[in-house]
Amino acid sequence: MEPSRNPAQEEATGAHRLRPPRPSWDEYFMRIAHEVATRSTCPRLAVGAVIVRDKRILTTGYNGSPSGMPHCDDVGCLIRIVDGRESCQRTLHAEQNAIIQAAYHGVNIRGATLYCTHQPCLLCVKMIMNAGIEEVRYAAGYPDPLAMELAAEGGLRMSPFPAGEDGR
Ligand SMILES: [Zn+2]
Ligand SMILES: [Zn+2]
């Protein structure tokens, strides 16, 4: 049960300022995705992903090397030119690691929503679709328009959060 509020007393003690406004579910999961991203081991970009269903977190992932292999932070990135732009080939992407974590622990992620600090790339979009994930919310854009086209064609809902953040 919620404790009864006494606005006059809160004003006197400053208690009303101690507690920030309660975040929406979208804000809450996106904030966690940003926290997850801080574990990234590639200095080029820190990406975090959280897979959610029924307002519960199922798995999380950040971009980094496969388990037991050296980190980009320690040995440098493994750069190759892919589709005309430099890309680090040492790491798995955050979305991939979140899906792999589901396989590792036997968690069903069908019908889930994926929150990600960045728009998923083409390969991640294809994996997200075949994992049965139905919706993606991303905080920042990523220069992969083909990923957006393929998602639209496949019926995967992808939208920025907060809305319009990346100019879409
Ligand atoms: Zn790297
Ligand atoms: Zn990706």
How do you describe this structure in short?
The protein has 168 residues and is an alpha/beta fold. It contains six helices and seven strands, in the order ααββαββαβαβαβ.
Topology of this structure?
Blueprint: H1 7-13, H2 25-37, E1 48-53, E2 56-62, H3 72-75, E3 79-82, E4 85-88, H4 94-105, E5 113-118, H5 122-130, E6 135-140, H6 145-154, E7 157-160
Helix pairs in contact: 5-6
The structure holds zinc ion (2 copies).
Residues 93, 95, 120-121, 123-124 line the site of one zinc ion (ZN).
Account of the 3D structure:
By secondary structure, this protein is of the alpha/beta class. 33% of the residues lie in helices and 22% in strands.
Helix content: 25-40%
Shape: globular
> Main β-sheet: number of strands, strand sense, barrel status?
5 strands, mixed
Strand order of the largest sheet: 2-1-5-6-7
If helices are DSSP runs of H or I spanning 4 or more residues, what is the number of helices?
6
Percentage of residues in DSSP E strands: 15-25%
Which ligands accompany this protein? zinc ion
Distance between the termini: 42 Å
Number of strands: 7
Question: Characteristics of this structure?
Answer:
33% helix; 7 strands; alpha/beta; binds zinc ion; 168 residues; five-stranded mixed β-sheet
